[in-house]
Model the fold of this input.
Amino acid sequence: MNNQIETMSCPIKEHDEQPYIFFKFSEQKNEILQCMFCNLEDPQVNKKIAINQLLNQPIWKIKNFPPLKDQKEDVKIKKILENCTKEEIKKFKEKILSDIDLYYKKIANDLLNGIAQSKKYSKEQFEKYFQFVEIDEIYNIEPLKNSLKQFQQNQINLDQLFNIQLNLKKDFEQEQKPKIVNNQEKIRQEINNQFNSLKQQLNQKVNQFNQQITLNNNIIQQQIINIQQPAQNNNNNNNNNHNINQNINPNNNKNIQQYPMNFYKSQDQCNSQNEIQITNNSRKIEFDNKSSKAKKIYSQSLDKEKTYHLKIKIDLQGSKKSYLDFRLISSEEKDSDWFGYNYLFINDSQGNCGSNNYQNLTKQGIKFSEFMEDNKTVFNVVFNYQDKLFEVYDDEKKAQLIQIIDWQKTKQDFVFGIQFCQNYNQPYPKCRLEIIDIQCY
Done:
């Protein structure tokens, strides 16, 4: 006990063995523990932590902790620490999962209401089709039946029966009678056709809904990795946490292979083929500057279940207004207009980057035009059709475009396309692409 008291007492003679009451993070060993007198001699008040608080209070209640270079962050950091305890994280997780259940329940109810309204409307429309004529009214044989009975009962004679059937015969042989009957069959067939069309439309709506509501796990994972990146960099300095970094590597345990992607000139009549050179096994592409016409190339058909990762260096000859995009195109449309397909452009005449489908687009960081350098900046183009992943980013991720692929735009086999357009200010700049790596996994 005496040793413990001595250990926690200040050894400086003039301080009368006063107990240590403060702790301070310091580069100097003699500053980390301070008694009352040490505290008076040290002006750095905001760096001292009461030992009693340090030993007995949760970290967000300890004054002057954690040690921050910017004290303006103190309140914010403490609030985050308070909200990140195991108990709070558990509550937060339960709340989010509960909110997901509630929201999906609401969506399900909205869908059921919408389906009920659609069913009601469809039935009302089909009711209008049922305008059949009673067959008994077209070929009404009741008079003949009655006449035969009357003849059997000797109520009429043969001459009378003959005259009755003769009138009926003339009526039944009218030309419009078969036409009316055939028309009933046409109405019946049309109702069946309309019903089959309704089923087809509903199936398409269900398929579209299923595709659009499926959240892209790769994109979610990429967002999480981006958020965790600062923590990962910190953990890289700690050997004990090495396994954590391995686990969150998106390419870990994947069978990564070099991929021989070949490129071809689009045969579209608007494509300026004579201004395109593809050399070095499709690793170098040059778009000439003889005109401002679009220049388009595309790859061979690709596997929808594979992930493709291209690393590309680009030389735009200093231009910040040339247009360049990457596209995923249906194989059947590779030699025609590429309008409306899944694409991401890294630059346009305004120096912007983005996509035509803003609803399915996520943009992070700054514009590529703000930092890209000819033949230096490495652009990463990554896509997986099955996972709906399509993204472009530089090696340092100063800028990143992430798009959810719209399956409706490329239903068949697909190819990877590149399109370049000069700005309209002469002299037109050329564009050179060097594909330094292509991986497939």
